[in-house]
From TrEMBL, chain A:
Residues 13-243 form the ABC transporter domain. It comes from Streptomyces lavendulocolor. This is ABC transporter ATP-binding protein. The keyword Transport applies. It is a peripheral membrane protein.
Amino acid sequence: MPEQVTEGPAAAVRVEGLWKRFGEQVAVAGVDLVLPAGRFVGLVGPNGAGKTTTLSMVTGLLRPDGGRVEVVGHDVWRDPAAVKARIGVLPEGLRLFERLSGRELLAYTGRLRGLPGDEVDKRAAQLLDVLDLAGARDKLVVDYSTGMRKKIGLAAALLHNPEVLFLDEPFEGVDPVSAQTIRGVLERYTGSGATVVFSSHVMELVESLCDWVAVMAAGRIRAQGTLADVRGGAGSLQEAFLELVGAVGRDTGESLDWLGGAR
Amino acid sequence: MTLTGVFVRLKLSLLRNGLRQSAGRTAAYVVSAVLAVLCGAGLVLALVVLRGSEHAATVAVLLTGLLAVAWAVMPLFFPSGDETLDPTRLVMLPLQPGPLVRALLVSSLVGFGPLFTLCLAVGSAVALSRGAFAAVVAVVAVPLVLLVCVALARAVAAGNVRLLTSRRGRDLAVLSGLVIAVGIQFVNFGVQRLGRAGGLSALDPAAEVVRWVPPASAVAAVGSAGEGRYGEAAAGLLLSAAALGALLYAWRRSLVKLMTAPDGSTLAAASRPSRAGSPGWRWPEGRAGTVVGRSLRYVVRDPKTKAAWVTSLAIGLIVPLFNALQGTGSVYLACFSAGMLGILMYNQFGQDASAFWMVALTISSARDAYAELRARALALTVITLPFVVLVTGVTAAVLGDWWALPGALGLSFGVLGAMLGTGAVASSLFPYSIPQDSGFKNVAPGQAGLAWISLTGGMVAAALLCAPLVALTVWLDATTGPAGRLLLLVLGAGWGTLLTWAGLRLAAPRTADRLPEILAAVSRG
């Protein structure tokens, strides 16, 4: 059973009855979520579960058909100024301003957020250093590799020191070295009391990083709670997940008996 | 089945699949196919009619030369136009270069382009051939022309795959739309010139040179044979045949190299860090300077933005200036330049594509949206204002009509202001996606109506808003002296500023309210 979350300011994100339809297709069908502050939260689910749609609505990039979203106590749609100042976002599948260099992208983002120029440049230089992008800081983002793009996106999301960080598939297509760098930065960030919410379909990753998990399938939340709660009696999060989304007992290829047989 | 057979079938299925797309695309496909066939038939007819005319050789030779240039340039402009053109797709298959070249060459002969070329070659041969020997030469020349054209396209494509698959190559392809847009203007004025300069005989010197360039040399050979100059005929044919051989050899070599060496993307990633301009240049504080800085960088670095700018600048210069040079213009035509550049204010957020989310996350009030839109208008003004002044001044100088300059400037400022204002409103109410990877599509599928409403509605509104200014200009121009003309300049500038301000004020709250809708609309490309 999900752990009962204490009411009040402890919740970083509170979602009630969130709905989104695209034509006939229901992408998100009544999501209720309470994500505690100061945790490393994983939103897991198979492809098409509605993770990206949910995160887009929570961050104010997509208008929901119904429901309420609160981030650190502020309504995303009624008080956008308070929310936008407190969140950092790294969406999946949306471009960056790729014809800027890494350094220019950070300079641009920070100044749009209203930070003083000197402070922006100082933080940008440090972030580029820590994320191992210093050597590519004057290269155009369009020439970056996937891992480098995720890292510069993360840097842009962290620049204004947000309270809650939303990352959509931050490790997708990222090489192990970059992944380790991203991990290190995120762990230090949550250690300071900030909240990270990230989506993924790699269970091992979620299991090793997160202390709070929400499992999503077919537009609904199937389970949410601490990692131990969600895992329950199953041996690993992977097994618990397959059970939750109802993918246990499928034909795993026994009918392909010719594969690997005599050639 | 032989390899050649497989490739020809592949090409036929690709052509057939062109018919199986969505209704709109099928219609476009059928229309372009019918158009190609009609043009080809018309060309044959025209050339046959030319038979016996003294200009027949000139026309046939130059048309063939032009067509060959088109074949050579085509793969650079449409790198994704023909899937069988990209040999890197075949790398994993166990194929020998010899049979592969043969198969690709034969399959290249299938399609509307080759059909059109065949029409031209046959038409030229018919127009030029006189006598039995010329007919024999024609039978050799026609397939030779076709093969040289196709091999030329293939060799250019294979030789440049490395360029075309790199980012720089794709940027180049996006810029190609611009070459065509501006080129059409030049051709237009060139044809007007030719019309007055005494007709086709003006082209004879060009034809004298082109007749020795393959594949036009094969067409010229038909004419030479008809006139009894057998040596010339043989030389022409030989030249084309040698060119075919050389092209096939070059093509084969680059194919082998392509299939055994690492591809362009690997090489590009491994070497050559892109230069990103002036690292020493400091970004200014606040949204205004930051947004202007970003917008101006995009004018230089983003091929799509650059293409739009260069097209607007070039056409905005060519139309008033060339008309003035031909003595038919008026200084007031320079307002066209202001209108042309003002179009760039339309669909501002569509120009960001899905990167608009980065902007959306920093806008949480109408005030933020106003600052953003104002900065974008400012970035536009930084370039357009001096340019409009320059074009108006030069036009006035060419026409020697300095009297009209202040009035024309005032009107230009008014038009520019109206376009900026209506452009801001249209940007927030009717945003649409601009496909980033194509030099020719400026609207994503399904949003053409939206784009049309945005541009047409906006321009009609801008015209109406400028109507009082136009009326005033016409009235004062006829009645007033120097003071009145200066008044026109001041009034125009003031009216333009007012319209821009009002447009931004109107657009800002709507932009702030519609951020998710705008993001959804511009992320389709």
